[in-house]
Amino acid sequence: MGKSVQAQAAAQIKSKLKAIGVKAQVKSYQAAGCNGVYVWCNEADKGKKDEIDKAAMVHQYGRFNGMEDIYEFTNMNDHIPQVMFVSVSYH
What we know:
Elements: H1 5-19, E1 25-31, E2 34-41, H2 49-57, E3 63-65, E4 70-72, E5 85-90
Parallel strand pairs: 2-5
Antiparallel strand pairs: 1-2, 3-4
């Protein structure tokens, strides 16, 4: 059996970040009705925030609309592994 879609997305994000010189912890998860990827970068990499977001957020296929309490599919791309949520944080 192959990797889950969230594991594939995490691997691609980690590879893209490594290519721009960012060493990050990347972890995928599966929960009831959703999946996602956590990305933890070093505080020193905040200067590359735009590049980091570009590499990571392409793997999120939509966003949650809290005003209407719905998930909107706004970024679907069948050519790459995508998940419901991608979270990028700095420590």
